[in-house]
Specification:
92 residues, mainly beta
Length: 92
């Protein structure tokens, strides 16, 4: 799963500041996604990195893992991309 979100977003919308503090996630932190049926998917962060916008390797599946990759831009200039990857640890 690959999710890209705005760091700033648009005031008054659900995208506003959606990934504002993505850079504060650390290895071992939990990311929880809930689908439309109420199923919760819990992921554990294992990597954070900064890449150039043309770094397509971060969009590819990770062999042997069920991974979520989160992407936003870097501050203050938005020139690069902050990538956080987390591995699925629980489904409930």
């Amino acid at each position: 799963v690959y999710i890209a979100g705005h760091r700033m977003g648009f005031p008054g919308t659900k995208s506003y500041l959606v990934f504002w503090d993505l850079n504060t996630l650390e290895n071992g932190d939990k990311v929880i996604l809930t689908d439309s049926n109420g199923t919760k998917y819990t992921y554990s962060v294992y990597e954070s990195l900064v890449v150039n916008p043309d770094a397509l390797h971060v969009t590819k599946p990770v062999s042997g893992k069920s991974v979520i990759t989160l992407q936003t831009c870097t501050l203050p200039d938005y020139n690069q991309r902050l990538i956080v990857q987390a591995e699925l640890t629980d489904v409930s």
